[in-house]
TrEMBL record:
Keywords: Signal
InterPro entries registered for this protein in UniProt: DUF4831
Domain of life: Bacteria
Region forming the signal peptide: 1-19
Name by which UniProt lists this protein: DUF4831 family protein
The species this protein was found in: Phocaeicola barnesiae
Pfam family for this entry, one: DUF4831
Presence of the UniProt keyword Signal in the record: yes
Length: 344
């Protein structure tokens, strides 16, 4: 593909056999499509931690030398990740209708579900979002099924805790003997060895949690879309509280999460030709902006992102889409920019 030659031909071509009209619902025949404008999607992954004290929590220091073990249940939140990305939404000011012509191949268009142009004379490659690696609540084994008869028959909670702590130390000693190859009945192969160690680890974890309690961690994703036209100078996207989690911007119970956008190009400065109808397929050339997110005085995200409203619009002339030239174009549905263009 000689992309540079094609780009020059776009600027030099002047012939046009059809006009592309602004789209008015209910009027005109053809394919209606939108160019996208940029919205900034702020995504916050917050972790909800739920603590449930163990049955022997008051004996954690006495028998296992574990400090700072509390007997009070609690729930709190932590921010795990904050990121911002550019997403395309239909621009109502850039809605057009492609008139159908017998000699015109540009009517072979692929659109998104929102009507944003994706491709002409070809199919846009499928886009797959990278799934979030979210932490889900763990399964906690029932510790009581590992307790011996002596522990269960103990006359007091303190005695049960003492015997359980001794059982934990016995498990640790058994693991050490196996790992050193000093156990009387050593596993015969590596798979058997791993199975025994895994089972002992599970028993130790279950019994230890009777002292330390259980911390369940669950990740949740929160998103909000902000429009650059509304101004993004110290814009509050969310608020955050360790006790309540992610809150709305107007909830003063949390600390603000600020979003800032800075660019050398002023928003809305582009002026398209007045009174002239675009002749061909329009596409965007987006500008760029530095987007940052700050929380509690620290910058937690900063990246240069494409912003369509900071760029301008160009046109692929209709001469590229007659029956003599098979031109294929793929657009970025988030920005409206050309991703790939080639021809036979």
């Amino acid at each position: 593909m000689k992309k540079g030659i094609i780009a020059l031909s776009l600027l030099a071509a002047t012939a046009a056999t059809y006009a592309q009209d602004p789209y008015i619902p209910g009027k005109g025949e053809g394919i209606a499509y939108f160019l996208p404008k940029t919205a900034l999607e702020v995504r916050v992954i917050a972790t909800k931690v739920t603590y449930q004290p163990g049955e022997f929590c008051q004996y954690a220091n006495r028998f296992l030398r574990l400090n700072n073990v509390t007997a009070q249940p609690e729930t709190y939140w932590k921010i795990k990740q904050i990121e911002v990305c550019s997403v395309g939404v239909p621009d109502s000011t850039k809605a057009y209708i492609m008139k159908l012509k017998d000699k015109d191949l540009a009517s072979n268009m692929e659109l998104t579900d929102d009507g944003i142009i994706k491709a002409i004379n070809t199919s846009a490659p499928a886009t797959e979002e990278t799934p979030y690696k979210l932490e889900k609540p763990q399964r906690h084994p029932n510790a009581r099924k590992y307790l011996t008869e002596e522990i269960l028959m103990a006359g007091s909670t303190a005695k049960m805790a003492e015997l359980t702590a001794k059982e934990i130390f016995n498990i640790r000693e058994s693991k050490n003997l196996i790992l050193r190859g000093q156990a009387e009945n050593m596993p015969k192969d590596g798979a058997s060895l791993q199975l025994v160690i895994d089972n002992l680890n599970q028993q130790e974890q279950a019994m230890t949690e009777m002292f330390t309690g259980i911390n369940d961690r669950e990740d949740q994703v929160f998103t909000v879309r902000l429009s650059p036209e509304e101004g993004l100078k110290d814009r509050i996207a969310f608020r955050f509280s360790e006790k309540l989690g992610i809150l709305t911007p107007d909830d003063l119970a949390g600390e603000p999460i600020y979003v800032n956008l800075t660019s050398k190009t002023a928003l809305g400065t582009q002026e398209e030709g007045k009174g002239k109808q675009p002749k061909g397929v329009l596409y965007n050339i987006p500008g760029k902006a530095n987007v940052s997110v700050s929380f509690e005085g620290k910058t937690v995200f900063e990246e240069e992102l494409p912003v369509t409203q900071l760029g301008y619009t160009e046109v692929l002339t209709d001469g590229l889409f007659d029956k003599k030239v098979n031109t294929r174009v793929v657009f970025n549905p988030n920005t409206g920019a050309i991703v790939k263009i080639d021809k036979d």
